[in-house]
TrEMBL record:
This is Flagellar modification protein B. The keyword ATP-binding does not apply. Pfam families: CTP_transf_3. It comes from Bradyrhizobium lablabi. GO terms for molecular function: N-acylneuraminate cytidylyltransferase activity. CDD domains: CMP-NeuAc_Synthase (cd02513). Keywords: Cell projection, Cilium, Flagellum.
Amino acid sequence: MKSICTMCARGGSKGVIGKNARELLGKPLLAWSIEQARQTGLFEAIAFSSDSDLLLETALQAGADLAVKRPDEMATDTAPKIPAIRHCLEQAIARTGITPDVFVDLDVTSPLRLPSDIAGAVELLNRSGARSVITGAPARRSPYFNLVEERADGSVGLSKSADPPIVRRQDAPRCFDMNASIYVWRVAPFLESPAVFYPDTQLFEMPEERSVDIDSDLDFTLVELLLRKRLALPETQS
């Protein structure tokens, strides 16, 4: 089975300025994901997509095989990510001559995953026969029990209802927070109809401590603390 890894990161960031190249324990944030992909031994090529020349050069220095310049229209604040992932995949196929059966997209803002998480998500795709696999951690709130949403008139109610009503969290169906860490697709159905969710999409469960997605300075600090603990590094002095 042939597989390719893609990573897509814009140069701009509103939550944490310059976060994708920001140093995390001595190396750029994006380098953690590239190294994890390489450590799995699964991929014929690792392709990195960005609108930023600086990020593309940093990715190559960190071990990416291909630098894919993202079109400007796919790099705006409102642009969805799926078209950028598809563009990166198509460029990787064209430039390597490899037609993979499966590809994996890693979000560089989720560096706490392990190579074994990537391998596990790919194994789930193969074992289940599904078209795609996403990753997530057990949700802290249940839409059946204690997660509410606001209605158009300003009132609130449970996000999901059940008959009879669920009165204990333990009785609710298992729910997960997507952690934006690993996405696995079969290439043919993705290229035919690019989407995150299909009727047979599966979820590979990851623990909360490996599921932090960096979207703020607080997230960055938390990720650094968790990595220091994992690597048994001393804490910095304030």
